[in-house]
Sequence to fold (222 residues):
Amino acid sequence: MGELESMTGHGSGRVERGAFAVDVVLRSVNHRHLDLRSRADDVAVDFLPAAEARVRAKVGRGRVDLRVCVEGRLRAAPTLDVARAEGALEQLRALRDRLAPEEPVPLTLLQSVPGLFREAGIEDRAALEAAITEATDEAIESFRAMRACEGKALATELMRLTGSLRDCVERLREEAPALVQRAVVRLRARVEALLEQARSSIPASRKRPGTDCKRVRGTGSS
Fold:
């Protein structure tokens, strides 16, 4: 039989990599099977299945919540689509010339044009993936350590209760003969009382000759 582990637990891992940091948190409550629920920040969503697989490989039971958070700068600055911006500005100026030639065309109008800025991808996906893996393993390790610690405390309590139960059984075994004897005495007294009550409740005119309650009583107690 392996070491007893609690199904409730908490563990966390943090890895810092220059401009960004990764935090992974595991929490669990009792559950008959493994029920893993996970969440991740947008930049970490692609790496969540791998983190889930690592948790499943190390955690057997419980309803487990996995959370992956990423702080800091991971993406390069957005880039401006210059050609699209120039085209949009040219169209705005042409519209101005037709409707109000004297009005200026401020560049702030470009803010309302969709798709002018292109979101940059993650600068170093390999570094982010490695950081998530390391933080996940760290969280799993602390999570299992907490479960094991609580399991040891639970095992100690179970051993104490088992010892108390064993002592009670031993005392019952020693006291059983006396308990049985006392029960017999109480039962005999009760039967005596019932027989006496029955004898006194029968009218003298209805008693049959030769009926002897004492004889019945004696037969019952033999």
In short: DSSP finds four helices and six strands in the chain. Residues 125-201 form the longest helix (77 residues). The beta strands are 9-17, 20-29, 34-40, 62-72, 79-80, 117-118. The chain has a mean pLDDT of 84.
